Amino acid sequence: MTTPVRRHHGGRIQERPVGWARNPLAEFDELLNSMSGLLESTVGSAAPVAAWTPSADVTETDDAFHVEIELPGVKAKDINIEANGQELVVTGEIKEKERKSVLRRSTRRTGSFEYRLLLPGEVDTDKIAADKKDGVLTVTVPKAEAAKPRHIEINERDESSG
């Protein structure tokens, strides 16, 4: 199998760039962040920047949904978790550090974030628990009793007794 190549004006062949198989949307996100940073460094931050969405994993067990959200450097007091029916909303803010020196480059995200999730089944919002460890917020959303799978026993009867 051959790899794609690019030809340039001089007729030279350029090999496929490293990272070609990466998520193309991640590159757009990086470009948007770079452009935003450039604009802020020249004009200043005049308008509030829209909330960004942190990375998360959602898993499901027989009893609950488990949501793990990456929030390194965020204090628990700066995170708000709300549940409304089947929707889970995690919001908060990563505050920018006050710097006493000249910042030459920054790729860390700051500002407001928002993570929204519509769960596929009925949940028990009264028993939701949250834990933060090593920069990962874990929210456990128990399923409602009606939504949990139930094993049905089969009564075996002798066929001759009818």
Q: Could you explain the architecture of this structure?
A:
This protein has 162 residues and is an alpha+beta fold. The chain has a domain at 48-98 and 105-147: Immunoglobulin-like. Helix content is 12%, strand content 31%. It has 1 helix and 9 strands. A hairpin with a 5-residue loop joins strand 1 and strand 2 (13-14). The N and C termini lie far apart (67 Å).
Give a short synopsis of this structure.
With 162 residues, this protein is α+β, with helices and mostly antiparallel strands. It has one helix spanning 24-43, and strands spanning 6-7, 13-14, 56-60, 64-70, 79-84, 87-94, 111-118, 129-133, 136-142.
Largest sheet: 4 strands, antiparallel
CATH class of the domain at 48-98 and 105-147: Mainly Beta
Q: Which bin fits the share of residues in helices?
A: 10-25%
What radius of gyration results from the CA coordinates? 25 Å
Q: Bin the strand percentage.
A: 25-35%
Structural class: alpha+beta
What's the end-to-end separation, in Å? 67 Å
**Number of helices, where a helix is a run of at least 4 consecutive DSSP H or I residues:** 1
Biggest sheet: strand arrangement: 3-4-9-8
**What is the CATH-assigned architecture of the domain at 48-98 and 105-147?**
Sandwich
| Element-level helix/strand string | EEHEEEEEEE
The fold-level CATH name of the domain at 48-98 and 105-147 is Immunoglobulin-like
Average pLDDT: 79
Q: Are there runs of 5+ residues with pLDDT below 50, and where?
A: none
Question: What is the global morphology?
Answer: elongated
Total strands: 9
Q: Oligomerization state of this entry?
A: single chain
